[in-house]
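Figure S7 source data.
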Amino acid sequence: MMVLLDGKKASAAVKEALQVQTQALTAAGKRAPHLAAILVGNNGASETYVASKVKNCEEVGFRSTLIRLESDVAESVLLEAIEKLNQDPEVDGILVQLPIPKHISEQKVIEAIHPAKDVDGFHPSSVGKLVQGLPTFIPATPYGIMLMLEHFDIETRGKHAVVIGRSNIVGRPMSILLSSNQKRGNCTVTICHSHTPNLKEICLQGDIIVAALGRPEFVKADMVKVGAVVIDVGITRVDDATAKKGFRIKGDVAFSEVAPKTSAITPVPGGVGLMTIAGLLKNTLQAYLQNQP
Ligand code: NAD
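Tokens for the predicted nicotinamide-adenine-dinucleotide complex:
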């Protein structure tokens, strides 16, 4: 029997708990946790992600602020906006929606966010702590996947996890979490990337496959062993004139052919994307609690 790892259900559970905690805080006369997001330019996917983050903040009772900057904004202006948020005692979490325009250094932006407010977990200080197994902000997507595994009680100990993709926002931190010595860790992890020659053979050994490469329907049924758990991180807009918006969202897994072979699989949409937001909200509450005087 295949289990659908439904991100709606799992994220609703996380959000409900956050809402209860937030209500308790405000009932006690405290201010609500506050997330500030900066959006540079008007990339369609980024607009959608940021709007969804803001909406989800409202749903759990958080405050949110969206700062919009033009796509040709000077790097110094963006860095100043971040610094202002760093200094603001009423802002708990800061995120800059990536990608940002090429004329701005992504690394400078990531390092400008104060580690205490780094709810995306991309600052080198946060990443270093993650690698050492210390408490920190875990990047939202891998965090969301761990919450998903927890929600559906997926065993990871002793399993072989194959992670496809080594980006700093998904693949790399995912591989670290799955190999860490914690409850949903303790996997043997193989991390694959664009220079991996025998990807199919490696995937066939995976008890757990995390596909995070950004190539629609890349993982086919003949790459997946029977009973594997498949986590599809991919979100790609594929042009489709028959769709209302002119595109459809595709995951990195050929769902209809792969799903029957698996013991559990995430859908796209309705899977990891929703858990990513749950992870971000949890990080925001954590920042709030840690930053209270
Ligand atoms: P990225 O482009 O930064 O990284 C892709 C990685 O995949 C690279 O490490 C590359 O080496 C590897 N790769 C590319 N082609 C490959 C191939 N043929 N074989 C093996 N490895 C290959 O992408 P990213 O930011 O990590 O995002 C990956 C996907 O996940 C994208 O579709 C993105 O939109 C999606 N995403 C989803 C969420 C979510 O909330 N669900 C969050 C972040 C990213």
